[in-house]
Each structure stands twice: as structure tokens, then as C-alpha cells.
Fold this protein.
Amino acid sequence: MLTRLKQMKAHFIEIAEMISDPAVIADQNKWRELVKEHANLEPIIAAYDEFTAIETGIEEAQAILEDKSADKDMQELAEEELRELAEKREDRLQNLKVLLLPKDKNDERNVIIEIRAGTGGDEAALFGNVLMRMYQRYAERHGFKYELIDMNETEMGGIKEAVFSLNGRGAYSRMKFVHRVQRVPETETQGRIHTSAATVAVLPEADDIEIEINMSDLRIDTYRSSGAGGQHVNKTESAIRITHIPTGIVVQSQDERSQGRNKEQAMKVLKSRLYELYSTEQAEKEASARKSQVGSGDRSERIRTYNFPQGRVTDHRINMTLYKLPQFIDGDMDEIIEGLILAERTRLLSGEEE
């Protein structure tokens, strides 16, 4: 590992020199790639430099302890410093191992999030609305830009389906752990408990250069938008529905007043869905992964439970329960998300496979 880190530092220095080369700057595509690689390596190299400084300190302390001419006070100080540095060394070594873990190539991407009401009728739709607001508040807390793409509302103010994007560096790395069915026990006025479910899928947003779409493979329909939207609703055919004929994928956008803007948003969702499809080795494998992520929306399938009467939220993947449901659905989700990230790192460090 240390040999690899030494090579990475040499490459880091080489990249820094290349970035300032006028010939490289002239090639903006290459320059941007090098700047991104430099930024990705920077925290690793900083941690490695700190580790090597600790190693040097350990060597110096050991030299004092082995020096028979050194006075007693100096040797006692060296012995104490050696203990402290040894503890720091283990901590920094573990940190380096985490930094060197294989990165998910999608971690830095923006995300498309799809929420669909599952079992539970109107209550499930209302729960879907709670989830959408929760992720919107989480985005605000972390500086991600929230952008609604499509929403199908119910008369009671719930949502049957909502599609939106969160834009910002590292959005996918934080949001990829919220997949699958989430359910909520709610108390009716008569005191009965019922359970609703909603499915949540998170897609990494695809870059234009990664997904090429043949326009002849698309069927594009326009229609009048429906649901909340003021006077603009049902007056013009600004909403867009795009069908990708080879795969049967259908996407739509009706949140914007402009037909052109809705088409742009729908194409963004289509590219992300196609990216998810094409990034797997086989279409069958992708379908299986998609099913495990989105789930069926049935009450028996659960990833996270929101218990309103007891004010608690439980993530069943890591068996973590928090008794602060109001704060959680207001976007204060970091404690569980950090727990999921830690669990994933632990799994990778131990070499286990899912």
C-alpha cells in the first residue's frame, strides 16, 4: 500500500506540473480531466504526507531511545512521544485504507430521484409527499439544488409519483443509500394503526457524452399539464412525454411552462435511466438490480420505517433507530446516512461481498 501511495504522490506532482503547462491549458478537455484527477488525489496525498511525517517522528523518537548518550529526561519524553505517535499512526493508516477504497464512479454525480406511492392508498400518497419534502430539505441543508421534473398529485395533497433532481458535487454519494421501500405507521383519529409504503429510486445523472440517443428511436408526445400549477394548468400543451422505443422506457415532464424546457428535463431523466440500463453487463441483471432497489411497494418489504406515534425512524439495513422523527423528516438525515456509509466502508475493508 505504501509503495502505491508513493507512486500516487509522484503522479500527483506530475499532474500539478501539467496543469500549469500552456500546451495542456490550450486543450480544455484534457485540462479539465487533469484538474479533476488532481482534486480527487489531493485528500489522499495530504493524508499520506501526514502519515509520512508521523513515520519520521517515530524514527526520530526511536533513535533517541537507542542513543545511550541521551539523558534520562530526553528518553522519557521520546518514549511518551513514541506512544502518542504510534496511536496516531494506526489511526492515519486506517484513514488511508478508507481513502484508497474503490470509488463508485457515480459518487460525484447529480441524482435523479423517483418517489412512487406503494401500498396504502391515499395515506401512501401523503407519505410520498412527506418523503419528497424530506429530501428537498436535506438538499437545502447540504447546498444541493432541488429541481422538480414531474409530479402526479392526488386531490388530498399527496403524490402518486414525483421525479426531481438534486444537483451538486457528491449528491449521489449521499443519496444512493435511500433506495427501496420506506414505510410509515400512522394513527387514524379512531386510534387504529395502518401502514403505508412508498418506493424511492435514485439514479446517477448521465453526462451527454456518455449516452448517445438516436432521435428516430424516440416518440415525443405533448399534452396539457395537470395538477397544481395555477392558471397555466390545462391551457397549453407544454407537458412532454418521451418514449424510448427500443427499451420501452417512458419519461415525462410537466413542471415547466416552456415545452422546450420540459423536453430538456425529460431527456435528462431518459439519459439517466438509459445510463443505469447500459451500465450493467446484461439487461436481465439490470432488471434484477432495479427490482431490488425500487421494490414492489408492498407492506412486507421494508428498508426504513417511520413510526409517527412513537416519533422514531428505523433503518433496518444497519439496525439503527433514532427517536427524532420530526427532525429527520425535516431533512436532518445525516446520522443514518453516515451510518450507512460507515457500514459500506467496513464491508469493503473486510473484503466481504454482497
Remarks:
- Residues 228-234, 289-301 have pLDDT under 50 and may be disordered.
- The two ends are 24 Å apart (CA to CA).
- DSSP finds ten helices and eleven strands in the chain.
- The first helix runs from residue 2 to 19.
